[in-house]
Amino acid sequence: MAFHLGSLGFLTPFSFDNFQNQVTQVIEGNAALVLRSRLKVKVHKEHREKKNLVQNGVEENGLIVNQQEKEYGKQTKYQVLNEVVVDRGPSSYLSNVDVFLDGHLITTVQGDGVIVSTPTGSTAYAAAAGASMIHPNVPAIMITPICPHSLSFRPIVVPAGVELKIMLSPDARNTAWVSFDGRKRQEVCHGDSISITTSCYPVPSICFRDPVNDWFDSLAECLHWNVRKKQNHFTGDEEEEEY
Prior knowledge:
The protein is mainly beta. It has two domains: 1-32 and 207-223, no CATH class; 37-47 and 73-202, Probable inorganic polyphosphate/atp-NAD kinase, domain 2 (Tumour Suppressor Smad4, Sandwich). It is 13% helix and 40% strand. The chain is built from four helices and 20 strands. A six-stranded antiparallel β-sheet has the order 9-4-19-16-11-12, with no helix packed on it. A hairpin with a 2-residue loop joins strand 17 and strand 18. The radius of gyration is 24 Å and the shape is globular. The chain starts with a strand and ends with a helix. The model is unreliable at 51-55 and 58-71 (pLDDT under 50). It comes from Engystomops pustulosus.
């Protein structure tokens, strides 16, 4: 049950002003529920030798000798509510990453990066990058390029049951960086892989009215979706002037 205390409030439909009455209504069972899907992400680091900084070295016969640290196939897991972002980081080169779907190469992203988002995340960074907005009840994953160097690379929606894998292309000139809901940012090197699929553990969210009305209310109030001055109908005099 999310209360609106911040600035935007897209995912927080309840007002804190009368929270006692609203909590009572929910406890009495007068509330609808929406399950917001999450992404299960595995980051696999290829084992490599990594040199430490000189400051961490040891002195032998007056010389600084760098110790070497081995990373053996390290794998970390994350649960992500909004999106996984792979970008070029501080590099001036294009991001060049391969995207696999169920083991098959579907495309190579050449641009600033790529966003893999849930329906909940489709109204966040993905929407700013030009993606469509998906209702949270739709079982899907959105793939959105960030500033692609292409006239035809549009965002796509894939089924929630697929497994995506993102890796640096063999001919990539630079490394990439990945973040999970804007956190845990880390470098992706050649040989590393990021596996993404829909998590078995969605986030239950209590609705203010119902899943459909809450979502469209948030689009209208928070994002001003399709706000435009309405066109007036012709009056009788104006119709005569047209002829």
